[in-house]
Write a structure and sequence with these properties.
Blueprint lengths: L1 E4 L7 H8 L6 H22 L12 E6 L4 E6 L6 H10 L5 H7 L4 H4 L16 E9 L6 E6 L4 E7 L5 E8 L9 H11 L7 E9 L14 E7 L16 H11 L9 E7 L5 E7 L13 E5 L2 E4 L14 E5 L9 H6 L1 H24 L1 H21 L1 H7 L5 E2 L5 E2 L1 H8 L10 E6 L6 H9 L4 E3 L5 H11 L3 E5 L5 H4 L12 H15 L5 E6 L8 E4 L2 H11 L15 E6 L3 H8 L3 H19 L4 H15 L1
Parallel strand pairs: 2-8, 12-14, 17-18, 17-19, 20-22
Antiparallel strand pairs: 1-6, 2-3, 3-7, 4-5, 4-7, 5-6, 8-9, 10-11, 11-14, 12-13, 15-16, 21-22
Bound molecules: adenosine-5'-diphosphate and magnesium ion.
Adenosine-5'-diphosphate binds next to helix 2 and helix 3.
Length: 629
């Protein structure tokens, strides 16, 4: 038996490990299983190139709880270590630079989650164990070795009796970490971090029902047998070639990833690149609702099939964090802060690769089956619109497949739309005015009057659409968007022909005065007299585009003008001076009757804009009954 001192000059590194990595101490299991996996994969490689004489077979990794002994075992059938190797890898390399590192990065080390990469992987066992034993037998001809360490820099090393090749790590769980002796806890960790690792991981056994033997009676119980409970799928879909997978395989992998999601994904994108960086993965487009916040953090990030995180912020462009699926890349530096990630060259390349792949996929879906793409549009538009807003490269690519649906359910690309409406909807200054509604029901009367002029009305109802319109208006020449209720229809798209007013200037002055008096000083309406077609409605309430859009933008975050959110709603009351009713109001002599006519007319205009509520609605109904009597 030999004793020695682990080669590190701080007196006791283990309290440091515990302190720095406290928040993340559950990752010890991931580290040990990663090492066991590495050891197995190394052996696989050595046997395949004839460097090892042993038969590779079907090695497993086993995790075992010994509740009574307060121990947790991780056992592999990998290449094992000779005594020399234990001394080299466990005693020396694992600590090389550790002291220096921890001194240098005292402040950042906690958040950086430094482990593994710096050789601290194995020692993360001391986050939960007061003593660690390692019993290992090399695949080479060499006696087995028993190494043990109780958390001080002193270790012991002696010969062991182990016959089978491989390594067993025994953790004597510390009193403050007994949760790691709970079966439920270990199962949870294995499922979280190791669900798709490449070597089968056994955790206990399970009972499997076998088929009944021939000639068995109806109520004979089916025979059962105890089998290994393998917790992982060593060959998840993303590690396979797209050509080897069917649509159903992608769907079943989705269910494996998200067992609680009952809705099927709309489509998937298989990522597969090995130069200039390594990345595989599958992204899914789920059905999305308009609530942007609840659907983040669903893409899982893996490194060589080891789960790392489900927060991919900084790696995947923000608009794609609404998607689901997995990304696996050994080239993403993990032990760094998020802000560093965003500046990292490789990560930038990965991010733009993903953006490009998503755009290409959308484009081919659109080209291959436009009808199907249109059907899915409502469920995917939020991602596309968000992408167009936030990534210029994506904006350019989306030109080809971004759709603009009309209230009648037709879908146009921007180019098609321009072509379709340019004759009808170019105003006298040569500007193309694109009309839209955000709600077919509440804006019904406005949509109808626009359609009466043979205008096309889009239905744009995403929460971020106001931002996107702003972007389209500045990036394209001579176009503007106007919601159908932004003005009365003749003013939405101004043409040369002006109507002649039937009222004299004096009459107009008088009418305006009377209306303002009836509305009262507190009114949020600005009265505006317009000479319009006598067939057009006499009173129309409009909401100027600019102010309304700024408020919308503020509601969905950023981009708007400061303080807009607190501004009162502002409306225009457009009065058609050429309408018979307006003339009648002007000529009515009795004050009472005049007032009643004005109130009734204004209320009708409000009703049509969906603004009549509460007491005002009650008064309106009472007045209406009075009038129909
Ligand atoms: P890393 O995995 O980043 O190399 P670790 O501290 O996790 O760092 O492990 C240090 C070294 O110890 C490994 O590189 C490996 O050589 C050796 N080792 C650890 N666990 C095992 C094991 N189960 N079987 C064989 N060798 C192991
Ligand atoms: Mg390791």
């Amino acid at each position: 038996m030999a004793t020695g001192k682990i080669n590190v000059s701080v007196d006791n590194i283990f309290p440091l490990i515990k302190k720095f990595l406290y928040s993340d101490h559950e990752i010890f299991l991931r580290e040990l299983i990663s090492n066991a996996t590495d050891a197995t994969l190394k052996l696989k490689h050595l046997t395949s190139i004839g460097e090892s004489k042993v038969t590779y077979g079907n090695p497993l990794i086993e995790v075992k709880i010994d509740k009574e002994g307060k121990k947790l075992h991780v056992i592999d059938q990998g290449l094992g270590m000779t005594e020399e190797e234990v001394k080299k890898y466990i005693n020396e390399v694992a600590f090389s630079g550790a002291e220096e590192f921890l001194n240098k990065y005292e402040d950042s080390a906690k958040d950086a989650g430094i482990i593994g990469h710096f050789g601290l992987g194995f020692y993360s066992a001391f986050m939960v164990a007061k003593k660690v034993e390692l019993i290992t037998k090399s695949h080479q001809e060499a006696p087995a070795v028993h190494w043990s360490c109780d958390g001080s820099p002193e270790f012991t090393i002696k010969k062991a009796k182990k016959e089978e090749r491989g390594t067993e790590i025994i953790l004597h769980i510390a009193d403050d970490s007994t949760e790691f002796l709970e079966e439920g806890k270990i199962r949870e960790l294995l499922t979280k971090y190791n669900k798709f690792m490449p070597i089968p991981i056994k955790f206990g056994t399970k009972t499997e029902t076998l088929p009944k033997p021939e000639g068995a009676k109806e109520d004979d119980p089916a025979p059962t047998k105890e089998v290994d409970n393998i917790i992982n799928n060593p060959t998840p879909a993303w590690t396979k070639q797209p050509t080897d997978l069917k649509d159903e395989d992608y769907k079943s992998f989705y269910r494996e990833l998200y067992p609680m999601q009952f809705e099927e994904p709309l489509f998937h994108i298989h990522l597969n690149v090995d130069y200039p960086f390594n990345l595989t993965g599958i992204l899914y487009f789920p059905k999305l609702t308009n609530d942007l916040n609840i659907q983040k953090d669903r893409i899982q990030l893996y490194q060589n099939q080891v789960f790392v995180t489900d927060n991919v912020e900084g790696i995947v462009p923000e608009f794609l964090t609404m998607l689901r699926g997995v990304i696996d890349s050994p080239d993403i530096p993990l032990n760094v802060s998020r802000s560093y990630l965003q500046a990292d060259g490789a990560v930038k390349k990965i991010s733009s690769y993903i953006t490009r792949k998503v755009a290409d996929k959308l484009n081919s879906l659109f080209k291959e089956n436009r009808a199907d793409f249109e059907k899915k549009w409502n469920d995917i538009k939020i991602v596309i619109e968000y992408g167009m807003l936030s990534e210029d490269k994506f904006f350019e690519k989306a030109e080809k497949f971004a759709l603009y649906p009309t209230v009648d359910g037709n879908y146009f690309t921007f180019e098609e739309l321009q072509e379709k409406i340019k004759d009808q909807q170019t105003d006298k200054d040569g500007k193309l005015v694109i009309l839209y509604a955000s709600d077919k029901e509440t804006q019904h009367s406005y949509i109808k009057s626009a359609q009466a002029k043979a205008y096309e009305v889009l239905l744009l109802d995403s929460p971020i659409i106001a931002h996107l319109m702003q972007k389209l208006e500045t990036s394209k020449e001579n176009i503007s968007f106007a919601r159908v209720d932004a003005d009365h229809v003749d003013n939405l798209i101004k043409k040369e022909d002006t109507q002649i007013s039937k009222l004299s200037d004096e009459e107009k002055e008088k009418l305006k005065e009377e209306l303002e008096k009836t509305l009262g000083e507190q009114s949020s309406f600005t009265v505006q007299l317009e000479a319009m077609d006598s067939q057009a409605a006499p009173f129309i309430i409009t909401e100027p585009e600019f102010m309304r859009r700024m408020k919308d933008m503020q509601k969905s975050g950023g981009g708007g003008m400061f303080g807009m959110g607190n501004m009162p709603e502002m409306y225009n009351l457009i009065v058609n001076t050429n309408h018979g009713l307006v003339g009648e109001i002007l000529n009515t002599k009795t004050v009472k009757k005049k007032e009643r006519l004005i109130n009734q007319a204004i209320d009708l205009a409000r009703l049509s804009k969906g603004l009549l509520k509460g007491e005002e609605l009650t008064n309106f109904i009472a007045r209406s009954y009075e009038m129909v009597k």
